[in-house]
Amino acid sequence: MKNEFWTLDNDSLFEPRAAPLAGPSAAAGFPSPADDYVEKQLDLNEYLIHNPAATFFVRVSGDSMTGAGIHHGDILVVDRSLEAAAGMVVVAAVEGEMVVKRLRRLEGKLALTPDNDAYPPIEIGEETECAVWGVVTHAIHAV
């Protein structure tokens, strides 16, 4: 399946586009009538993107990261300015194929691991062609 990437090179994306942010929170249980008001405006660009020049979006293909709350068809916000560290979810190119996985150390070696037991980890050996493209900061999906 072909990966889809979007970059943020269009300055118009960063013009303020705020929408009302209702209440301090939304109860997943019984709603409180006291929370029925608009608190302030929320700009999703400001909330999701901290470094526009280093941020891109990518659409997820597959179900290997469902344990991390990342599902097929989700759009990931990826920040290339963040330093990838063990435990972070990253987008990487492995042997020419784009993947989203969790960066880990397994038995002293780097690996890209899925958050779904149905898939094996990808061990990164000295001869493995691998480049981390960025750290996933948010996953956007429909409910």
Please provide a written account of the structure.
By secondary structure, the chain is mainly β. It is 3% helix and 41% strand. The chain contains 1 helix and 10 strands; from the N terminus they run βββαβββββββ. The strands form 2 sheets. The protein has an 8-stranded antiparallel sheet, with no helix packed on it. A hairpin with a 2-residue loop joins β6 and β7 (97-106).
Task: Offer a concise description of the structure.
This protein is 3% helix and 41% strand.
Briefly note the structural class of the backbone.
mainly beta
Major sheet size, sense and barrel closure: 8 strands, antiparallel
Helix content percent band: under 10%
What is the arithmetic mean of pLDDT? 85
